[in-house]
Amino acid sequence: MTQEINQQPATLGKARKRKIVSLDRKKARAGWFFILPFVIGFVIIYFPMVIESLRYSFSVLDPRTNTTSLVGFKNYIAAFRTDPQFTQKLISGLQKLAFDIPAIVIFSLFMAIMLNQKMAGRGFFRAVFFIPVILTTGLMETISASDSLTGYMESSSGIEDGSGTSAATQLVSSMDLQKLFDSMKVGDGIVEYVTTAINNIYDIVNRSGVQMLIFLSGLQSISPAIYESCKIDGATAWETFWKITFPMITPMILVNAIYTIIDSFTSQKNEVMKYITEVYGKGDNGLSAAMAWTYFTIVIAIIGLVAAILSAFVFYQRKSE
Questions:
Q1: CA-based Rg of the chain, rounded to a whole angstrom?
Q2: Tell me, what DSSP letter sits at residue 162?
Q3: Low-confidence ranges of the chain (pLDDT < 70)
């Protein structure tokens, strides 16, 4: 009788384990069901185009016979040796990418923390900061690209007053950033970085809406009981941020960094993509395809490098079983 009672908990434990595994499998099947339209569309429509583009990058098109012939890595070599503009735009594009990632992530994190506080009109301010995401998507982005007012606001030159300095530069100098950082014994590189960020604040705000929402979801997932415990222990707001808030939103920092890279890569304002489109418009399909694949490979390598570096500092909260 005692032996039968001891066997019952073990049997119940196995049954629960089977149910959990079964539930996980159901969730996995549901996930595949939702992404199935994309998978089918990618395999039928996009994947053949990707293979065709890769084949073009190793080929040369004969306009007289409209046939292609394989030339190996000739197009890739020509992209770097024959066309100096591609290398210049590639370097400047990667430099801009290195600037955009920390600027957008830091700004969106700062705004998410501000908008996560209890205040009147919090929902309104959240909507205000997300409106630029809607206005710079799809057709609206194409319209805004040709809009003179948007071009002025995005430009760091602003209105010239004849003194050789722009309105944006006057704004920075009026804040005495140079003097402020000089008194703090900060290098010229940081001064230039902050100055550039202020001058490009319009573009940074436009591209921080999605990242801000991701950070907000991460901040709201932190249990209020943790903050109450810190407050009881006498921790300051600064200590609470670095010991509790920051570690628990590191997964969102990783997601937002990768999202920002991809967003910069696919933006219509990307100078490298614009130049590749210009080369394609001239009829050089092989060279443009080689440039596109080169840029794609570099961006994928950057994503892998950023993911590998940030993953070492990501904190994942484990739920108690």
A1: 26
A2: S
A3: 1-22, 63-66, 121-122, 125, 129-130, 132-199, 317-321
pLDDT number for residue 113: 87
| Residues with Cβ within 8 Å of residue 105, at least 6 apart in sequence | 211, 253, 256, 257, 260
Distances (CA, A) of 137 to 46, 126, 214: 22, 18, 18
User: Between β-strands 59-62 and 67-70, what pairing exists: parallel, antiparallel or unpaired?
Assistant: antiparallel
Question: 52-73 burial, b if ≥16 CB within 10 A, otherwise e?
Answer: ebeebbbbbeeeeeeeeeeeee
Q: How do residues 88-101 score in pLDDT, each as one tens digit?
A: 888 888 888 888 88
218, 248 Cβ separation under 8 angstroms: yes
Helix axes 84-115, 122-135, angle to 10 degrees: 160
**Structure tokens belonging to residue 235:** 């921790």
First to last CA, the chain: 31
Can you tell me which residue has the tokens 């996930």?
A: 31
Is pTM beyond 0.85? Reply is: no
Q: For 150-203, how does the pLDDT look when each residue is reduced to its tens digit (9 = 90+)?
A: 555 545 444 444 444 444 444 555 355 666 666 666 666 666 666 666 667 777
What distance in Å separates the CA atoms of residue 287 and residue 278, rounded to the nearest whole number?
11
Closest CA to 86 of 282, 303, 258, 302: 282
Taking CA atoms, 274 is separated from 55, 271, 286, 303, in Å, by 22, 5, 16, 21
| Burial of residue 105 (number of CB atoms within 10 Å: 0-12, 13-18, 19+) | buried
Cα–Cα dist 177/187, whole Å: 12
CA distance 93 to 88: 8
